[in-house]
Amino acid sequence: MKKWSLVLMMMMGLLILAACGPKKFEPLAINEKVDICAICNMQVKDDAFATQLTTKDGKNYKFDDIGCMNEWKNKNGTKNIGKDYVRDYNDKEWVEFSKASFVYDETLRTPMAYGVISFKDTASAEAFVKEQGVGSVLSASDLSKHEWKQNTDMMQMDMNGGEGHMDEHKSEEMEGMTSDKEMDM
């Protein structure tokens, strides 16, 4: 009887240890109807620019632009991040941030005008640069030293009727502001 009790206790111990193993942090699906960027509060589109991170305690944050995710990291630090993900520009598959390659050029149109686009590998990033004729290929480590700034000219163009990345409410609000200003003139 004592043998069975000992075996049972050992099995319970192994089960408890297995349950306490490392957490898996997987990317969550984007729901355009409810997901808003944790930094700029704009709608997160289910597109190639969406990024996200999950903290070690399981809280998920979504962003409409990699620049917004970078801003979150600067404000909150990176020690508590379980995993962070970006999307491959070509096929929209989730890629671990640290394994992705990136292209930067201030003229590249991104939702918040940071000009950084992500790719699943360096070959894809290089092909994009060659095809577009602009941009520099960067690694995740390079981005830690990158000067993150928005292209304010592009942001102005988006607000004045260019192809922006706003949710419908913000677009209607901006249209209303434009109409009010035109009426005042």
UniProtKB/TrEMBL annotation:
InterPro entries assigned to the protein according to its UniProt record, in alphabetical order = N2O_reductase_NosL (IPR008719)
Ranges annotated as biased composition (Basic and acidic residues): 164-185
Signal peptide residues are 1-18
Reply yes or no: does the keyword Signal apply: yes
Q: Which UniProt keywords apply?
A: Signal
Superkingdom of source: Bacteria
- Region span, Disordered: 163-185
**A Pfam family assignment:** NosL
The protein depicted here goes by the name Copper chaperone NosL
